[in-house]
Amino acid sequence: MQLKGKHGCPLDKFKPCRELDCNWFLQVQGTNPNTGAEINEWACAMSWMPMLLIENSQQQRQTGAAVESFRNEMVRFNEAALQIETSHKTKRLEQ
Predict the structure, then answer these.
(1) Which residues, 6+ apart, have CB-to-CB distance to 29 below 8 Å?
(2) Dist. CA 81–CA 84, nearest whole Å
(3) Residue-wise pLDDT tens for the chain (95 aa)?
(4) Distance between CA atoms of 64 and 91, rounded to whole angstroms?
């Protein structure tokens, strides 16, 4: 079941939406983060907020995963570098 909201503007005492005469009425193009469907629609910025917040959260999770992956690679690199340095010091002390 899909609910249809009324077109009353919460910024203008719930008078009918002025659509293109309002700066908050904008076009969004892209992919719906919930369904993956392509979007190319005009609507009030207030009505786009929930979907844009979901998209923002998804992007933040992806960024967090990328940072964690980079961190893990740097830890491995530093451990390998430390091991090489330690082995060189050990060889110098043996000589």
Answers:
(1) 39, 40
(2) 5
(3) 777 767 788 888 889 989 999 999 999 999 888 888 999 999 999 989 999 999 999 999 999 999 999 999 999 999 999 999 988 888 777 77
(4) 41
